[in-house]
Amino acid sequence: ASLTSAVAELVGQLGLHDKEAMLCERLAELEHKERKRSTHVSIGVAHLRRGNAFLAQGACKDAAQAFKLAGKNFGPNPTLLIEAKLGQGRSLVGQGDLDIAEKVYQKTLTTLATLAKLKQLSPDAVGPVHVARAHLMAARGEYDEAFGELQVAEKLLLAFDGKGDESPNLASVRAARADVLLRRAQALERLKDPTARELVNDAYHEANAAAEVLHKVCGERAKETATAFSVKAKVLVRQGKYRDAEEPAAKACACIADTRAAAAARATYAAALEGLGRTGDASAERRKATDALRAGQGGADMVDLLLAEAEALKKQKLGERAAEAAAEAVRAALDPR
Questions:
Q1: Is 221 exposed, middle or buried (0-12, 13-18, 19+ CB in 10 A)?
Q2: How far, in Å, CA of 145 to CA of 132, rounded?
C-alpha cells in the first residue's frame, strides 16, 4: 500500500492523472484488505486522492462517486469530511447537477453545525462550504444569495480565524466575491445596465487584494493563489486592460491542475493575448484548453472556447476554419457529457 501510494503521488505530480486515479483505486482495495492494520480513514484518503485525480482530468462523474465513497469513511475526521464533500459538490456542479450539489452542501452544513456544538471543530471550518454554495448560487444567477453566503463565511473567519488581513482563508473569500461580482456585472451588461462598470471595478479591488495576500502567504504556485490570479485576470480582460491581464493569466495557467479550471484560465489568457493582437498565441492557448477538455468531459466550457476560436478566425477572414470551429462547438453542445 505504501509503495502504491508513493507511485500514485509521483504520477500525479507528472500530470498523469488517469494513471493516478487507477493507482488510487488499487490503493483503496489494498487498504480495505488490510483493514485490521489500517483504518476507515486511510481507505477514505485513498478514495479522496482518486477523486482529486479524476477531477483534475475533468472526469466529474467518476470524481463525484470517488468523493462520495471517501466521505463515508471520514465520520470521525471532520477536516477530511469537509474536503470530501467539497470535492463531491464541485464534481456535481461540473457535470451540471446543481440541485444535487446544493443538497450535498446543505447536508454537510447541518453535519458540521452538530460537530461544532460538540466542540469537535472550530465554527469557522464551515467557511469553505459557504464559499462553495456561493459559487453554485452565482451559477444559477442567484447573486444576492451568493453574496449572503460569502458574508456568512467572512463573519465566521473574522470571529475565529485570528489571522486578520493576512488570512489566506479570508483572501479566498475575497477572490470568490470578485468572481461573483464579475458574474453579476456580465448579467447586467446584457441588460444594458450602467451600474455594471461599478461592479467590475469592485471586482478588481477584491481580486487584487486577494491575489496580493495569497501570493505573500501561500506562495505563487499554491492552488489558492492561482485561482485568485485567474479571477484577477478575468476582471482585467473585462476592463480591456489586456497587457495587465497577461501576467496573472499566465501564472494561473502554470499552476492550476484541475482541467476545467485550467481551461477557464487559458480562455482568459487567450482573451488577453487576443486583445494585444497576438492572435496566433491566443489560438494556441484555446487549442490547449479544448484538447484538455476533450480528453475529459467536454461540456459548456469547451463550447465557449470553440465559439471564441470561431469568432477570432472570422475576424482574420479565415472563413472555412471559422466554420469548422463553429461546427465543432455545435457537436460539443450536443455531447451528452
A1: exposed
A2: 12
Is the model's pLDDT at 129 over the cut of 50?
Answer: yes
Q: Which of 20-29, 97-106, 294-303 has the lowest mean pLDDT?
A: 294-303
Question: What does the pLDDT look like over 248-257, one tens digit per residue?
Answer: 988 888 776 6
Q: Give me the mean pLDDT over the 229-244 stretch.
A: 91
97 HSE (CA, 13 A, CB side)? 15
Are the CB atoms for 238 and 202 separated by under 8 Å?
no
**235-283-288 Cα angle (round to 5):** 85
Q: Which helix (H) or strand (E) holds 2?
A: helix 2-13
CB proximity list for 333: less than 8 A, separation 6 or greater: 300, 303
**For cell 471564441, what's the residue?**
308
pLDDT (average), residues 259-265: 72
- Interatomic CA distance for residues 123 and 334, integer angstroms: 44
What average pLDDT does the structure give for the chain?
83
Burial class of residue 281, CB neighbours in 10 A (0-12, 13-18, 19+): middle
Name, in order, each residue with C-beta under 8 angstroms of 332's C-beta and a sequence gap of 6 or more: 298, 299, 302, 303, 306
pLDDT of amino acid 283: 86
Cβ contact 22:12 at 8 Å: no
Whether the CB-CB separation of 204 and 236 falls below 8 Å is answered with yes
Judge contact between 169 and 157, C-beta under 8 A. Answer: yes
Structural contact between residues 224 and 174, judged by C-beta atoms closer than 8 angstroms = no
